[in-house]
Amino acid sequence: MSNQADELRDLPFPRSAPMEPPVEWAELREKCPFAAVRLPSGDRARMLTRYEDVRKVLTDPRFSRDLARPDAARLTTAGDQGFMNARRPGVDITDGPGHTRWRRLVGRTFTMKRVEGLRPRIGAMVDELLDAMTAHQGRPVDLVPNLALPLPVGVICELLGVPASDQGRFTEWANQMLSLTRYDADEVAAGRAEFAAYMTGLIAAKRAEPGDDLLSELISVTDAEDGRLSEAELLATSMSLLAAGHETTASMIGKMAAILLSHRERYETLLADPSLVPAAVEEVIRFDAMSEFGLPRYATETVEVGESVVEKGTTVLLSLQAANRDQSVFASPETWDAHRGDNHHLGFSAGAHFCMGSPLARVELQEVLAGLLRRLPTLRLAVPAEQLRRREGLLVGGYESVPVTW
Asked: What CATH number is given to the structural domain containing 275?
């Protein structure tokens, strides 16, 4: 490899402003698409930044999500970021036939029809939250606790059949599961155990009295005579759906507001033509540049990727956000464009691990944006965009707060 490819770069890269991509992304795409990087743990990995290279790895089964390997790089020494990407006792859903089996079974219950059927309810929940938000006597109002977080928490809990009285407990559990440095290893283990105990109890209650919800349907798959979800897989699935099912969307709602309101002509474009909302949501996802690391994969064989050879045992970080700004794929990639057509971004991954929750995330983001445009046409940021505070120490980024006024 070239000397430049072997030059070790520390992650995360510095940024000039919270929403701006690191300058290293463009440099690496052009000159060093297989960069050597050092993670906060001190472990070394390789980073891919070109669209075609990233897509190649996402769709190649020789790259595994199982990071519980002794030679796999760790993002950090704190937390348990392997929870979402590692095999565990009784759980065979990470890669290969086990993942295919799991995806087929869960996909039968987590359907597009079910998600689209939720759209009116999601729209009503957005209006309820905006009613409460606009009733505030004082401004500015923080969009995160008033809209961005409670909406996806409420939606995923309602979908799974979690009692409304318990919904407030999931945010901290989700943060612990997705922690990089915010919690230490003992706090993560304790939170995971508490979360697992709660879900075990809920599964038992649903088994005794099934409801018209996703968790009850997953239990029926587990309890069928030819049941192919183990009890451990059922528990892991329900925990992952609850954690990832609200944290990623909550983060994106805040980022969407910041992207549109930091250059308010973007919001005004949508006010003039609300039919652009679906395309605008896709462009927000493509344009998002707040990820620090990307998706990790482990090479189970030596594989050629583009101009590079990925040796067996290498941990590769796939920078989806850097790939989404590849000028060989996207015209004027540094420009946000609500009229962009054929927006084949990688924001929801690709291949066998394409995000199963993407239809739900899209509906939630579309309903939030449509609600804001309809109810708050004068909406604007209450602070300069560069003063927005990033969330630190979690795998899922975003903002701690997004103060707005109108």
From this structure: 1.10.630.10
Q: Which range marks the domain in which residue 90 is found?
A: 3-405
Using CA atoms, how far apart are residues 66 and 337, in angstroms rounded to an integer?
Answer: 36
Span 129-143, average pLDDT: 91
| Lookup result for tokens 């040796």 | 311
pTM of the model: 0.93
Model confidence at 189: pLDDT above 90: no
pLDDT, tens digit, 9 for 90 and up, residues 83-116: 445 556 667 788 998 898 888 888 877 788 888 9
- Considering only 26-40, 57-71, 104-118, which range has the smallest mean pLDDT? 104-118
- As for how many domains the chain has, the answer is 1
Q: How far apart are CA 190 and CA 192, in angstroms?
A: 5
